[in-house]
Amino acid sequence: MSDNPLVLSARPDSRSARHRAGPPRPARQRREPMPLVLTALIVAGALPVAFVWWQNTIPGSLDSPAADLTAAGRIAGLLAAYLLLVLVALMARVPLLENRIGSDTVARLHRALGEYTVALAFAHAALIVCGYAWQGRTDPLTETWAVVTGYTDVWLAAVALGLLGLIGVVSARAVRRRVAYESWYHVHLLAYAATALAFSHEFAVGTEFSASPRNRLLWSAAHVVVGAAVVVFRLALPLYRSLRHGVRVAAVVAEGPGVVSVHLTGRDLDRLGARAGQFLRWRFLARGQWWQSHPYSLSAAPTPDALRITVKALGDASGALARLRPGTRVWFEGPYGAFTARRATFTARGTFTARQTFTARWRRGTARPVLLLAAGAGVTPLRALYETLPARARGGPGHHDGGAHHDGGVLLVQRASRDEDLVLHAELRRIAQARGFGLLAVVGPRGGPSGDPLRADRLRAMVPGLAEHDVYLCGPAGWTAFVRAELRRAGVPARRIRTEAFAF
């Protein structure tokens, strides 16, 4: 036992370090270009928008500070309208984005673009008003009243701007921590209304569209395509799947203090294509819950007739799941997320064709060893991955012997403050014994006389060859950020640290 107050279910074996002695093999990383491609496409899409502004700017018209302010307001408004359309597209739950790029990446991009969108929208209003006030030699307040009351559909634009401002306030970190998830989620849905109102404003007073049938056609087509994606992927497809598969609650099982597993049954669930590590948005058609939709990960490998989620009571909605009755009908969206075995990387040993599967590469000993790090309810997607990651034959790169390490190339470290908080740990022990995987429980306070038990030096001691691992990390946001930073300090490249986020 170390001097830190920990309870360990397994310990690193010194033989592991001897086994891995010598320089590491050169790595051939499986690149993930899709996030960069998506970002590049969004940036490229802004160029035609800027060209529309330039095309409709009369040569020689930018001849005064008032004209410059008004022109800057026009381009800010066009870019804000474009980014608002992009935000709605990112909210549409398009499977290519959600499952190939990853919900976490899409969520980060959505948050970043949302800040720019709100800033550009307010800049558009302020610059236009100031430009007109300068030109008319009036004060900004008087000009604001004149613009709002004297121009067609500017009232609609004012409402849209107010909605965007409300979304921006609710999205601020200090506010988001204090707002219930349901309120935060439903406020964000106002982005659809803001987009519709902004569209009407653009066509009514925007010279870039009122004077050009071609621009009106292209802008309308872009809105139709994005609107169709929202209708198909957020309404029609979830409704079709929910009716077709007939998912119902089979049982609710207590797993620990405030933690329950909801067992679900349905028809032909294998046709969903759900993978371990993914999540779905669930809507339980019970009194007081039917109007709420919440994301929960699969906590067991999906089968043709059964799914399972495991949820910790963190609010009214998650706490109410313990009262669900067998037979309750369930509607759902998904599956979503790229927090799966498909994101693993491979060493340079051996050559493979594009047709060879992840399992084939793993069994031939070319997949990297995998470290799963879980805290609290974050163990649920990792438990499903732990069950389904293919075991590797002995002797491949990253092979460890005995102790906390493993013949299968997989180690799961579960963090908790108390023994009773080790969610699903008994199941994890059975899987570890059956598959030859490593399992390590780290129980105790985060601080203590020896510091945090998952700081970089302790992680390296627990996991020899840590820098050569693929790492899947899931837990509370603050804990995840801390451990990710410690992994980077321990030498794990950022491209091999996988996390997942549920928020859009």
From TrEMBL:
Main location: membrane
Keyword Isomerase found: no
Cofactor(s) annotated in UniProt: FAD
Gene3D superfamilies attached to this UniProt entry: Nucleotide-binding domain of ferredoxin-NADP reductase (FNR) module, Translation factors
Transmembrane regions listed in the UniProt entry: 35-54, 74-92, 113-134, 154-175, 187-205, 217-237
DNA repair in keyword set: no
Membrane association type: Multi-pass membrane protein
Origin superkingdom: Bacteria
InterPro entries according to UniProt: FAD-bd_8, FAD-bd_FR_type, Fe3_Rdtase_TM_dom, FNR_nucleotide-bd, MRET, Riboflavin_synthase-like_b-brl
UniProtKB keywords: 2Fe-2S, FAD, Flavoprotein, Iron, Iron-sulfur, Membrane, Metal-binding, Oxidoreductase, Transmembrane, Transmembrane helix
Region (Disordered): 1-29
Entry's localization field: Membrane
A Pfam family per the record: Ferric_reduct
Domain FAD-binding FR-type: 242-342
Protein name: Ferredoxin reductase family protein
UniProt source species: Streptantibioticus parmotrematis
